Amino acid sequence: MIGRSKEFDKELVLHKAMLVFWEKGYDAASIPDLLESMGLSRSSLYETFGDKQTLYRETIQHYKQAGRKKRSLLANPLSVKTGIRQFFAQHIASAFDEALPNGCLVTNAAIFPDSSDPQIHQLVQDSFEELEQSFYELLSRGQQTGEIDPKKDIKVLAHLLLHLNHSINVVSKVKRDKKVISDMVDAVVEML
Fold first, then answer.
1. Residue 117: is it exposed, middle or buried by C-beta count within 10 angstroms (0-12/13-18/19+)?
2. Is residue 82 assigned to a domain?
3. Of the four listed, 43, 67, 93, 167, which is most buried by Cβ atoms within 10 Å?
4. Is residue 56 a part of any domain in this protein?
5. Where are the alpha helices (DSSP H) in the chain?
6. Cα 170 to Cα 167: distance, rounded to the nearest angstrom
7. Mind listing the pLDDT tens digit of every residue in the chain (192 residues)?
């Protein structure tokens, strides 16, 4: 007997599961919550993803793909400051998007490490390091072109931008004032 083929879009159901984990966290996201959101049967969930922890890891990977698109704004901007402003403009828009849970899935996983899975911890750490490296490479190009003062410690500045990114995720959950956050980004960019 030939088994039935899966009749769902894996990326779409991953996206739906991601929203549940993002909103509730790993521990509070129950299997029934996930099944309802994803529109899957319990057997389809387990056949496709194995278990809740594996599904959580895959949703973080899915989320990181979207982050790579945003990080691409840092790859070849017209200028360093323009690239950083564009990155943070998109970041702020996402942080305040009413269609998305507040904050950021990766930031939430770092702050509230519900799962003791070392692979999830590694995914979060990799995400932080990848973004910091993107900032560092952009700032390095800025020093080469003269846009960034060569005396500035760009390693520290890249770390500052990483922290700004994650602080926006946390603050946007509590203080829903885009202007204050945009002004903060402007102040940091002017320091560069």
1. middle
2. yes
3. 67
4. no
5. 10-24, 31-38, 42-49, 52-71, 80-95, 105-111, 118-145, 154-174, 178-191
6. 5
7. 344 445 778 889 999 999 999 989 888 999 999 999 999 999 989 999 999 999 999 999 999 887 788 888 899 899 999 999 999 999 999 888 888 887 788 888 888 766 677 888 888 899 999 999 999 999 999 999 999 999 999 999 999 999 999 999 888 888 778 899 999 999 999 999
* Burial group, residue 34, by CB count within 10 angstroms (0-12, 13-18, 19+): buried
Q: Where residue 97 sits, what CATH number does that domain have?
A: 1.10.357.10
- Does 12 reside within a domain? no
Look at the chain and report how many structural domains it folds into: 1
Range of the domain at 120: 61-191
Q: Which residues contact 51 (CB under 8 A, 6 or more apart)?
A: none
Domain assignment present for 32: no
